[in-house]
Design goal:
This protein has 304 residues and is mainly alpha-helical. It has one domain (16-303). 57% of the residues lie in helices and 10% in strands. The chain is built from nine helices and seven strands. It has helices spanning 26-48, 55-78, 81-84, 103-121, 125-150, 200-222, 228-245, 260-278, 288-303, and strands at residues 16-19, 22-25, 167-171, 174-178, 185-191, 254-255, 258-259. Helix 5 packs antiparallel against helix 6 (200-222).
Length: 304
């Protein structure tokens, strides 16, 4: 018997398929799948903590669109040369389906949307944040699969056995014109010069899943409340993002020779740790009666 081992990880031949004239984009499907998982898992955790059924879905109606807009804004603001440099098409700054969502902007504006929704329903935002924390980081892991299909977010050349093969993609309507974007198709799997490369998207995917498991374990063991589970997620994610950013070679703005996201990760990590420690003084996890009564009172007001 012969054992077959992959010397490298192959990339998908393409990241978009067509149903008639309708494009089906892997990146968009991964984002949608991540959102569904985050809502489903958050709903389960919310009810386990004493919250009323359906609250997470109501919050998501505000948080998700806010988060998508915030994520795109952060990406465009921190990498403006991709859209506004000479020869670039500014309208593509709106093309979310081509990839490019900054998690910092998504969390910031998504948090604003969640705060608005929580105020409307009388729900403590920190309690809701604790419930959805593992689901959010799991959604980020699923979203990284979209980067795999788009052939983006990778590092430098490597000879490691898990190196990622990236291929030259071409315009499917004119195979003589190279198109390395997500709309291109690889014909004959022609590798790019730096291939194989460090699969940093995969490192982050696995790290995010580990963070989700760690947050759940810590939450069950110590009954975290008042936003501490969410702070733990933020600290865990940024710790991983810090070292993964150091491996990435895709286009990014730099400060003092380091990528902007390296500094952002460090600052946010420190803030999350400080909050995690300080919030301990707020005492035990929120009373389940508080979480359930808040939603019930909101339902009564709507019924009047």
């Amino acid at each position: 018997m012969h054992s077959v081992f992959l010397a490298t990880i192959p990339s998908p031949q393409q990241g978009v398929w067509y149903l008639g004239s309708i494009p089906i984009r892997a990146y968009a499907l991964c984002i949608i799948a991540g959102i569904i998982v985050a809502i489903w898992w958050g709903e389960r955790r919310w009810q386990e903590r004493g919250g009323a059924k359906g609250a997470v879905v109501d919050i998501a109606v505000f948080a998700v669109p806010f988060g998508i807009v915030g994520g795109r804004l952060y990406h465009v603001i921190t990498d403006p040369e991709l859209y506004f440099a000479p020869g670039k098409d500014p309208i593509k700054a709106l093309y979310i389906w081509d990839g490019g969502l900054g998690i910092w902007g998504a969390i910031a504006l998504g948090g604003l949307g969640a705060w608005i929704a929580c105020r409307r329903k009388g729900i403590p935002l920190p309690a809701m944040a604790d419930a959805i924390a593992p689901g959010i980081v799991a959604a980020q892991a699923i979203g990284r699969l979209g980067n795999y299909f788009n052939q983006e977010l990778y590092g430098a050349h490597t000879n490691l056995p898990w190196g990622l093969e990236i291929y030259q993609r071409f315009d499917p309507n004119n195979p003589t014109i190279p198109d390395q974007g997500p709309d291109g198709v690889a014909f004959g799997s022609i590798p790019l010069p730096d291939s194989p490369v460090q699969p940093t998207f995969l490192y982050e995917l696995l790290w995010n899943l580990a963070v989700a498991g760690f947050v759940v374990w810590m939450d069950r063991r110590f009954k975290l409340g008042h936003g501490r589970a969410f702070a733990l997620y933020v600290a865990g994610y940024t710790l991983g993002r810090f070292w993964i950013e150091l491996l990435r070679t895709d286009t990014a703005n730099h400060i003092l020779g380091l990528r902007v996201n390296v500094f952002t990760s460090a600052v946010v990590f420190i803030g999350a740790i400080v909050y995690f420690i300080v919030a301990r003084s707020r005492g035990p996890r929120e009373d389940p009666e508080l979480l359930s009564s808040a939603t019930k009172s909101d339902e009564k007001e709507q019924a009047v």
